[in-house]
Give the backbone structure.
Amino acid sequence: MSIATDLIRNIAVAGHGDTGKTTFVENLLFLTGVISRPESVESGKTVSDYTDEEIENKISIHTALTHVDWNGVKVNLLDTPGSSDFVGEVVAAFRTAETACVLVNAKAGVQIETIKLWRRLVARGLPRIVFVNRMDDEGADYQNVLDDLSQKFDTNFVSLTVPIGAGSNYRGIVSLLDNKAYLFKDGAAEEATDIPAEMTDQVAEARAALIEAAAEGDDELVAKFLEEESLTDEEVLRGLKTGVQDLKLIPVLCGAALKTSGLSAFLNAVTGICRSPAGVEETILDNDGNESKISISSDNSFSALCFKTSIDQFSGKLSFVKLITGTLTSDTELYSVREGKKEKVSKFYIAQGKKLEEVNQLCAGDIGILAKIASARTNDSFCTPEKQFAFKPLALPQPVHAIAIEGAQKKDEDKLGEALHKVVEEDLTFRVEFNPETKETVVSGMGELHINMILDKIREHQKIEVNTRIPKVAYRETITKPAEATYRHKKQSGGHGQFGEVSIKIRPLERGQQYQFDNMIRGMAVSKGYIPGIEKGLHEAMSEGFVAGYPAVDIGTELLDGKEHSVDSSEMAFKLAAKGALKDAVAKAGATLLEPVMNLEVFIEEQYLGDVLSDLTSRRGRVLGQEALGGGIISIQAQVPQSELMRYSIDLRSITSGTGSFEMSFDHYSPISGKIADDVIKAAQADKENS
Ligand SMILES: Nc1nc2c(ncn2[C@@H]2O[C@H](COP(=O)(O)OP(=O)(O)O)[C@@H](O)[C@H]2O)c(=O)[nH]1
Ligand SMILES: [Mg+2]
């Protein structure tokens, strides 16, 4: 069976870790009869935390896809992980959903990941709905959370519920949309009843506020509301719908997911207020890279975007796609834009967590899974051979933590390489690079947990040992003053000798200019044919380095003079002479080491500011500025040498009780001297002796 696009809602469930997202989805599945009883996260049997590593760690690591039916509307739910180590999965879910449901803890209120998620949602302009969960926890306070939200985010929040009790006295909610009380029953779905008499006034007041907010959501309704001081139920929904879509207001509901409480009101809100995919615009790029817009609609020919790839033990490669236009049937001719070739669609599915359900048709706006498209990768666009265009790819955050790895046994290297390659296809926030300079394979990701989890899985599945260590820093060498040198390469061995003499002058160049060569010889001191040999020699000497074996940069060389021999000279002899001359000149000028310096943006809660700043100073960091982002969150901009940041993702978390995070990118090379430089040189020498 296929559903019309306007009867679909795609909801990304997001929030700080432990706000109850997975429990929330589990209980929505229970409420709607998909499962006969909800399982706890602790039991490891929930529908959306189904991978081995999720069951073992009791947290969500991947975005899981489930769906429920509510009054004939199909609600696709994307349960995302809360930890910033897996933010790539969250970004993909935001890209796919038309609405984000942000879960907030009823006791703790807005937390650091809430704020970071919120920034992403604001940047994407994605409509939001908030669910204040865990109302049954001791200390839960709905009004406090509403105040906290309004204070921390500059938005108009509109409450759709009134809680009945809190903490151990929590009994359920009043839904203001249908003016009904929903009392939870342990182990069964909640029941709609009349509003408790003692709450009549409170509810009337809350509903009046809701109607007024709904009126403000839609210009036409404002006029009517001013005149008649009331709206019909249908008008309330319309006002809220427009307000949410235009980002003018954000509905807030509360409940206790663990007790299947408040979830009917949530689904009523989602189906009644949140937009369907129909008509939502997507940015596309044609073959020449020109941007234009396309609306989600079944009318056009088929197109879809792959937002997630996973490799299943039994089903092989699974490509999670959102259909943007047209319909998918087994006859659809699928064209992979990146590969530039047709792909055969054999089977496709919808899913309840790991349980796949084969379907024979998917319509625009829906989310499905294509099986066994060998070439497919996350971010791939699929369309038909006749009409080719690509969707704007997901923009993912840069990795912040790197480690060097190698197979413990030489024979494991191939297996390791293959396994890493597979992970890269699944996870765009994980990178593998071979650094030819340091001769290391370096993997990088969003945090220590992220990388460790990937490596543990590889160790287990491939039965190989993988060694890890802190990666080497790619230092550089340079000079700070000019010098001159002459070098004669001369050898007399039997028949042919070798002869070449080169005089050069070197000077420091500006940072980033790398290398320059000027031939200043006037006249015939050195034949033209030997000049390339001289340049090769200079290059080789630069790449080998002078004090610690790191490549030299930003040196200008001038060839001043030279001598040649009519029989014994050769390109090789001049190459060696040039190398010798450069080494001598650098020795006279004195070589300096350069270290990479990174740009850093650190996000922390205010209370850790002092500790984080003094830690940055102890890392030889230079703080460039700080900015209050609202809600007690501060971002610090700094420049810090890369060698001081190798464990920063681990250390920052321990300084900030797990709440801090950062982004970084390379900025420039900067000279080092004294003990810091001596240590680098010593380490390089020790390395050389060991190899
Ligand atoms: N008391 C209470 N606990 C809840 C509720 N929802 C979730 N939890 C608990 O909170 C913990 C984290 O839940 P989980 O669903 O894994 O949170 P997630 O990290 O946001 O996915 C688990 O121990 C849940 O049982 C709730 O409504 N009430
Ligand atoms: Mg979870």
Remarks:
- The mean pLDDT is 92.
- Residues 5-273 form a domain with the Rossmann fold fold (CATH 3.40.50.300).
